[in-house]
C-alpha cells in the first residue's frame, strides 16, 4: 500500500525523536539500566496484549498493519535508546538528576514511576499515530454492502450500499483508503473492483463458500481452457492418524493436570443446588454421527425439558456457579473425556445439536461440509468469532480450517484459544 509505506517512511525519524525525548527523560530518573529494560518489556507485553487480545487481533484485522507497524517502531526507537543508555552507564555508572530521590531502599518507587511513564509514552505514541500520521482519509475503511448493514461498526469508518448511484459510490471510494466489499454479487463486485484498482485502493472481500472451495482447488486444463478441480473438503488419512494420536496424548495430560479443578467444580455445584454435576446432550460430530457431549452443569437442572433454547446474555437459567464456569470456559473441561473416547477432537468445528443442524441446513445447505472432520473442543470459528457469531460465518472459518489443516495449525489454534479464555465467554 503505497500511501501507508510512504507515510511510515516520512515519520520514522520523527517517531524516533519523540520516543527518545520521552525515554531520555525517564533515564534521568536513574533507575538502573537492567531494570529499565525489564520495564520496557512489560510495556511491550501490555501493548501487544491490547493489539492481539482486546478485540483487535480477533475482529479488527483491517487495522492490524497500522498497530503492528507502530509497535515495531516503538521497539526500534527503544533499541536506539538502549544502546545510548548502555554506553552511558558503562562510562558513568552512577545516578543522575532526580534519581537521587530513589535510593536503594526505595527501589520500588522507581519501578512504579518507570512503568507508568513508559506506558504513558507508548499510549501517547498510539494517539499521535492515529491522530497525526493518518489524517483525512489515511487508513479510513469504506464498507460496501448489498443486503446487510455492517455488524461491527468498530472496524469501519464509513459504509454505503452498492445500490447507490455510480457517482456517489465513486466519490466515497475516492475519499477512503481501504475498501471492504461485503457479500456483493459477482457482477456488481467486479465493477467495484475495477474502480478500486484504477484508483489504487486496497480492497478486502468477504468470503463466499464457493471462494473457500476454489482456494483449495487444483488448476488443470480442459482442452485449451483452464479450469479448477474441486473436491469435497476433508483431511487426509495420514493427518487423521496424527491428529488422533495428538488428541489422546493431550487429553490424558489435560485430565491429569485439571483433576483438582474437576473436584472443586463438582463440590461447588453440589453445594449450590444439590443437583447433578455433569450435563449430557446429543451433539453431532464427523459424518453427522450423534454422541453424548459431557459438560459441567451450569444451568438449573431439567430447565430445557428437551426443547432447544439459544443461551442469551444474562440468561436467568444459569446458576451462580454456572456463570463462573461458563465465563471461564471451565464447563467445557469434561469434553476431554469425549476427546479421549474419540467422539471429539481437540480442534475442529464446534458440535451442534442434531435438531439445530436440521434447521440450519434449510437455510445453509453447505453446512454439512463441516462434518467431514470430528467436532472440536475449540476451533477456528471460536478464536476468530464468539458465541453469537452467525452460523454462516462459523461455517466459513470451519471450512478454511479443513482446507488448510495441519498439526501446526492445530497448535496455533490452541495457543490462540488462551486469550479467548482470558477474555471470557460472551454468552453470559
Automatic annotation (TrEMBL):
InterPro entries in the record: Bact_transf (IPR003362)
Any one GO MF annotation of this record: phosphotransferase activity, for other substituted phosphate groups
Alphabetical keyword list: Membrane, Transferase, Transmembrane, Transmembrane helix
Keyword Transferase: yes
Domain Bacterial sugar transferase: 243-422
Chain segments annotated as transmembrane: 12-33, 39-56, 68-88, 108-130, 245-269
NAD is among the record's keywords: no
Superkingdom of source: Bacteria
PANTHER family: COLANIC BIOSYNTHESIS UDP-GLUCOSE LIPID CARRIER TRANSFERASE, UNDECAPRENYL-PHOSPHATE N-ACETYLGALACTOSAMINYL 1-PHOSPHATE TRANSFERASE-RELATED
Protein family membership: Belongs to the bacterial sugar transferase family.
Protein name: Putative colanic biosynthesis UDP-glucose lipid carrier transferase
Origin organism lineage: Bacteria, Bacillati, Bacillota, Clostridia, Lachnospirales
